[in-house]
Amino acid sequence: MNISTTFNWFERNPLTKGISSGELNALATSTELVRLTEGEYLYRDQDPSTALFFIHSGELFFERSTIDGERVILSMVFAGDIAGFSGEPVFSGALKACTPVIASRIDKDNYLKLLQQSPDLEGRIKNKFFEYMNWQQNHIYMLGHKKAEERIRYLLTLLRNKSPLNDRSITINLSRSEIADFVGISRETVTRVLKSLSDKGEIELTATTQIVLKGDDRSNSGNYF
């Protein structure tokens, strides 16, 4: 993959868009472009944590397994996020693509050098951490205090607000099982709630199990869903 292609991805990435050409070029020359199809892993549990990843497009699940081997989805990663931070020598969890994904891999040593050379990028990444901490607090509150329909509305709002598209309707390709894992309810309850939202005209369920989320209010997620 040539440097100009990687440069163009960083130029469009919500996290790095607008930084200087010199900084973009440093990113492009220090990273390796990675492409994943749906279901592939960016990294797996217990892989060496020697690199970080700038996510250019697509969506991923961060997941871990219980002692019984049951998958637990702890969070989602979107375009504009940076993934792979770990204080341990290996990853404690896995990052799985739930859509096609394009990302850039950077070794930790090169990442630290880049931050020293780019205060703008360092500030943006710090803000991303604060955003992630706030998201985690909301997610924990949702799991502990929200009812089934509120949990699914929360997820649909998250996906709408993170969508790069400006269309009035967006299509969500998560399976019922993936939705159930993420919001902590049964697959049967997911099916029942989605049917209820469909009957109200808020979503459309397609024959291919896709969910079409209607409306265009992206700014006030608390009221829309």
Fraction in helix: 40-55%
Can you give the mean pLDDT?
Answer: 87
CATH class of the largest domain: Mainly Beta
Distance between the termini: 41 Å
Outline: globular
**CATH topology title of the largest domain:** Jelly Rolls
Estimated radius of gyration:
18 Å
Name the CATH architecture of the largest domain: Sandwich
Structural class: alpha+beta
Strand order of the largest sheet: 1-8-3-6
Features:
alpha+beta, disordered C terminus, 11 strands, 2 domains, 4-stranded antiparallel sheet, single chain, Arc Repressor Mutant, subunit A, Jelly Rolls, 225 residues, 23% strand, 8 helices, globular
Structure description:
Helix content is 43%, strand content 23%. It has 225 residues and is an alpha+beta fold. It has two domains: 3-140, Sandwich (Jelly Rolls), CATH 2.60.120; 147-224, Winged helix-like DNA-binding domain superfamily/Winged helix DNA-binding domain (Arc Repressor Mutant, subunit A, Orthogonal Bundle), CATH 1.10.10. Strands 1-8-3-6 form a four-stranded antiparallel beta sheet. A four-stranded antiparallel beta sheet has the order 2-7-4-5. A hairpin with a 5-residue loop joins strand 10 and strand 11 (211-213). Helix 2 (21-30) runs antiparallel to helix 3 (108-117) and helix 3 (108-117) crosses helix 4 (119-145). The longest helix is centred in the middle third of the chain and has 27 residues, at 119-145. The chain is globular.
